[in-house]
């Protein structure tokens, strides 16, 4: 457990009142601030800070408020870059050495040969290191900041979208081949995974969300290690929630069994909205469920039995978020003002970071290893 959790636990044992407020600038929990943002229809970080905060804000509350605004209004990360961390500001994960990664969405892990060729062509053109990820996508490393819009312009033209690998949002929905090809498959897990991923793509949350759909109990997609996972049964689908890998792996717990696809989607809508509204910042579904009084039984009562009477509202809110989805990279590429953001030097926008250095490795290039601070770096950037 974290030190903060230990202190909070001791204080609760002593009968003291404990509130997980966001930071020194907001004397509210994330859940309280989300409710206030909705109630007062606040649309920007400055409005929220002026009405309910104090001071100038910090690196903690700015991303939290941005996440809340995105969850409430289906906002993209492009609107207020000053309130975002570097990954959201540039719609890419900054990597070792100062370059960025490019991860297009590949729903359900299904991709055509033509799209594979596009990824290969882009990677070759910009000398990007390519790696197949654990989420059944292809990651391209080593992109210079000012090359990102041009790279994504080519990917968008080929039908790709942002994979949100940089975001506290839905990442991937893995799948096995299911009944499409596997002789053991009970249902079409690939089609269901694609449907689920396209529904929740871009959904912002307190932390990243991962999912998977397996076509039978053999579980090749590893659905029981995901924030929510789906496994085919002879009678329908089983829905599991609250799993994750990471430094402290959690096995997902069964929420509902032998349900049809429509009911499964309905329960996922409710589960995700309940999580988005009540979890603390940077809390995955597993620790959120662990800390929930009543655990999986309480969660099942809320999601399946609608014990709080909120199901209809949550489903309507999710429908609004789904209907208002926008690809952040499409927005960035087509907006000249946003494209100007992708530069190291405002007075020399075409100049690349001279400190970036690569070394060859297995017919590709990788970032040069960290050197002693007194040893000068050797620039070996591959030509583009």
Features:
single chain, 384 residues, alpha+beta, Alpha-Beta Plaits, Sulfite Reductase Hemoprotein, domain 1, 3 domains, five-stranded mixed beta sheet, three-stranded antiparallel beta sheet
Walkthrough of the structure:
The chain has three domains: 19-73; 84-162 and 329-355, Alpha-Beta Plaits (2-Layer Sandwich); 168-326, Sulfite Reductase Hemoprotein, domain 1, CATH 3.30.413.10. With 384 residues, the protein is α+β, with helices and mostly antiparallel strands. The strands form three sheets. A five-stranded mixed sheet has the order 4-5-6-7-8. Strands 1-3-2 form a three-stranded antiparallel sheet, with helices on one face. It has helices at residues 3-13, 30-40, 45-52, 61-73, 86-89, 113-125, 148-157, 189-200, 261-278, 285-290, 295-303, 311-323, 328-333, 336-339, and strands spanning 100-102, 129-132, 138-143, 170-175, 209-214, 228-233, 236-241, 253-259, 358-361, 364-367. The chain contains 14 helices and ten strands.
Low-confidence stretches: none
Name of the CATH architecture of the largest domain? 2-Layer Sandwich
Order of helices and strands: HHHHHEHEEHEHEEEEHHHHHHEE
Strand adjacency order, main sheet:
4-5-6-7-8
By helix and strand content, what is the structural category? Answer: alpha+beta
Shape label: globular
- CATH topology title of the largest domain: Sulfite Reductase Hemoprotein, domain 1
Mean pLDDT: 92
Number of DSSP strand runs: 10
**Alpha-carbon distance between the two ends:** 47 Å
CATH superfamily of the largest domain: Sulfite Reductase Hemoprotein, domain 1
Instruction: Give the domain tally.
Output: 3
Specify the number of helices. 14
């Amino acid at each position: 457990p974290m030190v903060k959790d230990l202190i909070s636990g001791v204080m609760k044992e002593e009968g003291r009142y404990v509130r997980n407020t966001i930071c020194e600038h907001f004397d509210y929990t994330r859940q309280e601030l989300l409710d206030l943002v909705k109630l007062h229809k606040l649309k920007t970080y400055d409005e929220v800070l002026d009405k309910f905060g104090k001071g100038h804000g910090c690196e903690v509350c700015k991303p939290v408020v941005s996440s809340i605004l995105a969850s409430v209004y289906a906002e993209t990360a492009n609107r207020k870059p000053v309130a975002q961390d570097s990954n959201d500001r540039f719609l890419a994960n900054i990597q070792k050495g100062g370059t960025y990664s490019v991860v297009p969405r590949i729903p359900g892990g299904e991709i055509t040969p033509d799209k594979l060729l596009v990824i290969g062509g882009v990677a070759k053109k910009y000398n990007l290191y390519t790696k197949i990820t654990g989420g059944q996508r292809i990651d391209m490393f080593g992109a210079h900041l000012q090359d990102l819009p041009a790279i994504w312009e080519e990917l968008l033209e080929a039908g790709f979208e942002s994979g949100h690998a940089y975001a506290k949002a839905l990442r991937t929905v893995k799948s096995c081949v299911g009944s499409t090809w596997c002789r053991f498959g009970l249902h079409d897990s690939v089609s269901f995974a694609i449907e689920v991923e396209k529904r929740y793509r871009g959904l912002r949350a307190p932390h990243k969300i991962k999912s998977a759909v397996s076509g039978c109990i053999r579980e090749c997609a590893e659905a029981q290690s995901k924030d929510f996972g789906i496994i085919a049964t002879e009678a329908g689908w089983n829905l599991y929630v609250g799993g994750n890998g990471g430094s402290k792996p959690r096995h997902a717990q069964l929420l509902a069994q032998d349900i049809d696809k429509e009911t499964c989607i309905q329960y996922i809508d409710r589960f995700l909205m309940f999580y988005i509204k009540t979890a603390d910042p940077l809390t995955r579904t597993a620790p959120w469920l662990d800390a929930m009084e009543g655990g999986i039984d309480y969660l099942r009562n809320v999601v399946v039995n609608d014990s709080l009477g909120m199901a209809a509202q949550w489903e309507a809110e999710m429908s609004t978020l789904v209907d208002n989805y926008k690809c952040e990279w499409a927005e960035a590429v087509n907006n000249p003002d946003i494209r100007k953001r992708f530069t190291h030097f405002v007075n020399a926008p075409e100049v690349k970071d001279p400190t970036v250095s690569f070394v060859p490795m297995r017919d590709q290039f990788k970032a040069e290893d960290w050197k002693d601070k007194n040893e000068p770096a050797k620039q070996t950037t591959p030509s583009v």
